[in-house]
Design brief:
The protein is mainly alpha-helical. It has 26 helices and no strands. Helix 4 runs antiparallel to helix 5 and helix 20 runs antiparallel to helix 21.
Length: about 475
């Protein structure tokens, strides 16, 4: 008996931690950021170095407008692992909100290099670049102000050094394509020669040497990219040629539409993410019309691009309350994804359709979409969530046996992944289903298991509600 109790006590802190983190995530999604911060803070008393917990709390601070705290937590998540991409993204977001657009751009680029498949990094790069273009007239002066905390006369001397001519191939390429940013590159290059300076740190704690080197790498990458994209140097120098290039309706080579599409999708997603829904929808419609006029030869993955545009338009219309039109676009996205056997796009379209159907109260259609998504899901937590959603649809439709069965599958997936929050939710679903079926002993049993998880998570509201359900069921 004592050994069992001892073992339970030894496991309890771990269980409490995971449920506190799960609570924090759930409260954040509900918009209760202050309560979420409390959950994350309590969790950090159990595991002071948990990087995911720092990221979660940083998101809360960011939403609350406490940007300094958000940045501090993001940096704490990177303390042990500088390649932790979630921490990099959160740090970039915090810097962006603080108006540190140049530094934010550096960390967006770092994240994209580590995880190129994550679209948020590309969107971050886009919005940071736009912010810099909109707010910076003389980039070198801004970089000096943000990076340097030393002798102004020394800075002036360093700046004069940037005007020395260079003859290397890389220098010629940089000077040719970087334009006004070429002077910035030379300025940063000279800063690296100052040994005392590069040992210093920025206001946010980042080592200056790392920041400067990242900026140089980014500028060189840009120069090389533009070198490959612009066959004629005159296009980079003559504003009239650039203007003419912008008004071209048809690209003359496959590389041009590819670049146009990437940029367009980034702009559309950035608008939708920032709440500029109508503007994003307008752009998506214009790009859709343009792409529809192109041949498969010009855009080999034309249908995949069209599917992405339909998805963007569906999300925009759903946000605007035009659910019927949103369904049409998500269905078109699904049709194209299934036609070309694109699992990720198929999963995306099914989830969008199911979410809208659920909002409309069309649980049969929602359930059908959720069930088609099952083979496309791999992670344990995602399975627990998906089975729970299907079970809830069955419960709403009074398919109590089916609801119980999917609830049990959700329990198994949640236990496999060790997610106590979803174990709680799944046991409640099973208990409700068993209660509807008249299996009151099983109902009480699952409520009691849910109660155990609620207590481990220190969720007072859930504890009270579940205890009330147990008492009522016992009376039956």
């Amino acid at each position: 008996m004592s050994e069992t109790s001892s073992e339970f006590r030894s496991q309890k802190p771990k269980g409490v931690f995971s449920t506190l983190v799960a609570d924090g995530g759930w409260l954040f999604l509900k918009g209760e950021c202050e309560k979420a911060v409390e959950s994350y803070t309590t969790a950090l008393t159990l595991k002071p170095d948990d990087k995911s917990c720092f990221v979660g709390r940083s998101k809360c601070y960011l939403k609350m407008g406490q940007y300094d705290k958000a940045l501090k937590d993001a940096e704490a998540s990177l303390q042990e692992d500088q390649t932790f991409f979630e921490g990099l993204y959160q740090k970039a977001e915090a810097l962006y909100c603080m108006g540190e657009f140049e530094f934010a751009l550096v960390f967006y680029h770092r994240g994209r290099k580590l995880r190129p498949q994550i679209q948020e990094f590309q969107l971050g790069i886009q919005k940071a670049q736009e912010a810099i273009e909109n707010s910076v007239s003389v980039p070198a002066h801004i970089i000096k102000q943000k990076l340097i905390h030393g002798d102004a006369s020394k800075l002036q001397k360093d700046e004069e050094h940037t005007r020395k001519p260079q003859t290397s191939k890389m220098e010629k390429t940089s000077k040719k394509y970087l334009g006004e940013f070429y002077e910035d590159r030379k300025y940063l290059e000279n800063l690296l020669k100052d040994e005392d300076l590069v040992k210093g740190r920025t206001r946010s704690g980042e080592q200056l040497q790392d920041v400067i080197q990242s900026c140089l790498t980014y500028l060189d990458d840009c120069a090389e990219f533009w070198n490959q994209q612009k066959p004629r140097s005159s296009a980079a120098k003559d504003p009239r040629l650039l203007q003419n290039k912008r008004v071209e309706t048809r690209p003359r080579a496959p590389s041009q539409p590819a670049h146009f599409l990437l940029k367009s999708l980034e702009d559309i997603n950035a608008d939708l993410a920032s709440g500029k829904t109508k503007r994003g929808l307008k752009k998506a419609r214009a790009v859709l019309q343009t792409v529809q006029g192109w041949s498969e030869k010009v855009v080999p993955d034309k249908d995949e691009v069209l599917g992405s545009l339909h998805s963007c338009m569906g999300n925009a219309l759903a946000d605007l309350g035009e659910t019927e039109k949103a369904l049409e676009h998500h269905q078109k996205d699904l049709d194209l994804a299934e036609k070309w056997n694109l699992p990720h796009a198929t999963s995306r379209a099914l989830e969008n359709l199911a979410s809208i159907y659920t909002t409309m109260g069309s649980f049969t259609q929602a359930m059908q979409c959720w069930e088609k998504k099952i083979p496309l899901v791999q992670g344990g937590v995602e399975k627990a969530w998906l089975f729970h959603e299907i079970g809830r649809c069955h419960l709403e439709l009074r398919g109590h046996e089916e609801a119980r069965d999917f609830g049990l599958r959700s329990v198994a997936a949640a236990e496999e992944s060790g997610d106590e929050k979803w174990q709680l939710n799944a046991h409640v679903l099973v208990a409700q289903s068993e209660g509807k079926l008249g299996n009151f002993e099983s109902c009480v049993s699952h409520y009691q298991r849910a109660l155990t998880h609620a207590k481990l998570q220190e969720d007072a509201a859930a504890t009270v509600a579940i205890q009330k359900a147990i008492d009522e069921t016992k009376q039956l």
